[in-house]
Amino acid sequence: MRRSARLDRRIQAGAAHLTLAVRDGEHSWGELGARIAEFEARRFVLVTDGTAPRGQLARVRALAAARAPTVLHELRTRPLPTDPATDGRTDADTLPDGTVIAVGGERACAVPAAVRVPTDLAAACGPALTLHRPVPAALAWVRTDLLAAGPAARTRAGLVTVVRHVLAVCPAHCPTLAGLLTPGARHDARTLTALLALCADARSALVCFDPDETGPALALGYGRSLAAAARATLGPALAPGDADALGLLLAAAVAARLGLAARPTGRAHRDLLARNGSATALPAGADLDRFAAAAVAATGPGLLLLADLGRPYCVDGRLLTPVDGAVLRAAVGELAARADQADRADRITLPHSRAAGSGPVAPRDRGDGRPAAGREQDGTGSPCGRDGGRSTVETRSGPAGTAVQQKEFPS
Question: According to the model, what pLDDT value does residue 165 have?
Answer without folding.
Answer: 98
